[in-house]
Amino acid sequence: MWSGPRNLSTAMMRAFENRADCAVSDEPFYAAYLAQTGLDHPMRDEVLASQPNDWREVAGQLIGAAPDGSTIWYQKHMTHHMLPEFGRGWIAACRNAFLIRDPVRVLASYVKSRETVTLADIGVVQQSELFDAVADRLGCAPPVIDAADVLSDPARTLGALCAALEIEFDSAMLSWPAGKRASDGVWAPAWYAGVEASTGFAAPGGDEIPVLPAHLAEIAQEAAEHYRRLAAYSL
């Protein structure tokens, strides 16, 4: 599942992990991304120590049989972690889906955990590029779901996603126990407070669009065309 940050991505991981037949992986390229870019993110040292720093090692771990004898392996990937110098051949061994969200809402949420943000940090451009690469290989659009649709009708949207991925929908995906998970990345204390308190997909908080300060509004405007293009393929 390819998404940017603050896209409902961890809640989606919770949903799949609550299936009895599914193993999950949380942002496996995060440490390699930080090591390559030198960026300062919350808990940077802990992230670097928790995962392989070489993208080749990570990619080699992501293909083949699912862990623990599971029949489904849900890999939560951040699109901006896939730097141009990281090989992408492994992606063809997976079924790829795309989780999108209105960039205005992404940015309003992102800056609550990290004040500094650029267009590249929210992964919308990279997501568009990855979508095109997968679509070109398949000859058709891969599955796309919008976080707003997940929140407004989780059963319908997750049902459509499962159908597109040719797996059975499981109602266990609609709720989960609150709390931390051993599968969560070591960075969870900096980012996952909301999902740790959750027991399911919260209903949307209304249709009011956040008002962004000028510097964030400019980023949102740049991201909007990429979001809208993928939104046209939403299930």
From TrEMBL:
Keywords linked to the UniProt accession: Amino-acid biosynthesis, Branched-chain amino acid biosynthesis, Hydrolase
SUPFAM superfamilies (UniProt xref): P-loop containing nucleoside triphosphate hydrolases
GO MF entries: hydrolase activity
Hydrolase is among the record's keywords: yes
Coiled coil residues, start to end: none
Pfam families on file: Sulfotransfer_5 (PF19798)
GO terms (BP aspect): branched-chain amino acid biosynthetic process
Similarity comment: Belongs to the class-IV pyridoxal-phosphate-dependent aminotransferase family.
Protein's recorded name: HAD family hydrolase
Species this protein is from: Novosphingobium ginsenosidimutans
Lineage of origin: Bacteria, Pseudomonadati, Pseudomonadota, Alphaproteobacteria, Sphingomonadales
